[in-house]
Fold this protein.
Amino acid sequence: MIRSSLSEISNAIGGSLIKGDAMVERVVTDSRASCDGGLFVALKGPHFDAHNFLPQVVEQGVEGIVVEQESMLDIPQIIVKDSRRALGAIAKFNREKLGAKIISVTGSSGKTTVKEMIASILQKKGKVLATRGNFNNEIGAPITLLEMDETHDFGVIELGANHAGEIAYTASIAQPHVAMINNVAAAHLEGFGDLYGVARAKGEIYGELSPEGFAVVNLDDDFAEYWLKNIYSNVITYSREKEADVTASNIVMNEEQCAQFELGYRGETQQVTLSLAGEHNVLNALAAASCVLALGGSLKDIAIGLAQSPVVSGRLMTEYLENGCRIIDDTYNANLDSMKAAIKFLSAFKGRRVLVIGDMAELGELGRDYHEEIGLFAKEQGIDVLYSCGVLTRFSQSAFSGEGQHFSHQIKLIEELKKEAKENVTILVKGSRSAHMENVISALMDDSDKQTGVIASSQGEQ
C-alpha cells in the first residue's frame, strides 16, 4: 500500500475518524499477522468477527483500526457501516494512487495459469505483483491490490466469482487497463443457474474498462459474440480455430506433451515453446500473449516469458515413483471442461492409463448428467481403467462401463491404486477442491521414494 494518513483514507471511504490520526503503510485483516505500521480492518462473517480480537492487534503495534462500532481502545479508528465494503473502498483508494498497469483475468478454467504466464512475461519489463493462490474474491482481490505500492509497474489481478455482481464489484476496484475472460464452463452453476448466467457474470469484467482500455476476447468460446456486442473499449481477439488478432499455428507436442507452435500477431510470427504440459495450454498462452500485446509487449518477450512460466502446484503436475510409474497431480480443482482436458491429456501417453476422479462440485441439477458425460468421454478417449470416489462419480463409473471400480472412501481407493502403480503406468488424479483428491497423491508419493517432478500444467482451477 502507498503510505497514507488515516484522515485521507477516512475521507476517501466515507468513514468517521475518531481518536486521532496516523500514517499507515499497509492494511491487515488477519489478527494473527504482524500489525506494525498497519491499519487493521475488522472483518465480519457468518462464523467470525474480528472485532473480538482488537486488543490483540493493538498490542501487536497496529496504527489504526477500521470498525463497525466505536471501540473503547485508545487508538485511532475509522468507523464504517460495513467493514468488508470498507476494505474494498480502501483498496480502490490505493489503486487510484498507483501508476502501475493493471491486467484483470477471469474465466471458468485456466485463469490462474494465464495469470502466471502474464506475470512471467511482464517480469522482464518491471516489477510485477500477481494474485497469490486463490485470493480472487471480494476479499482476496482488494487484499491483493493493497499489496501494491508506487514501486510496482504491473499488477495481474485474478477475479473469481460464485454469484452475479461479484466480478463487477472487484473489477470496479481493480480498474484494469486490460481485461480478459479465458472461457465459460460448467462451474459454480448453483450460484449462476446455467452457462448463460456464468457468461453474464464473467462479462461484468469488460463493463469496468474505460474506452481507452483493452478487452481481450477468446473467439473460440461460445459466448464471444455476446461479449463483443457489449464491449465499448478497444478489443484484441485470440483463437486457435478462427481468424483473430492473436493465433497459433504449426502446433507440435513433444514427448512430455508440451507444445511448440508459431505465435502470430497481425502478420508477425514468433516460435514459442511452452514449459507447461497439455495442448490446452496453447489457448492459455494465446490469452496471456494477447494481454501483454495490449500493453505494447513484443512477441520475442512473450516467447521468453512463456518458456519460463512456473510450475503451478496441483495442475497436471507430473512426478515419478521409484519404479517408473508416472503420477499426474491435477487435484487443484475441476469442472466439466477441465476434466475433459485432463482426460485428453492422459490419453496421449503410452502404456496403461489410469484415471482417478473425485466429484465435481457446484453443478446443481446437472451434476449427474455431467458426471455421466465424463465417464463416456473417458471411454471415448481410450482410457484403460477408471477409479472413482465420492457421490456423483458413481455415475461416471457406470457410464464408463469398463475396467475399474467406484469407492465411497479414499482408503480403499488408495489401496487399489498402490497395486496399479507400476512401470509403464500413468495415473492421473483429479477432482474439485471439496473432494480432497490431493490426499490420494500424497499417499501414493509417500509410499515410494520419488524423483523430482519434471513437468507441470494447468487447466482445472475455477
In short: The chain has three domains: 4-80, 98-307, 317-446. DSSP finds 16 helices and 24 strands in the chain. The two ends are 28 Å apart (CA to CA). The first helix runs from residue 6 to 13.
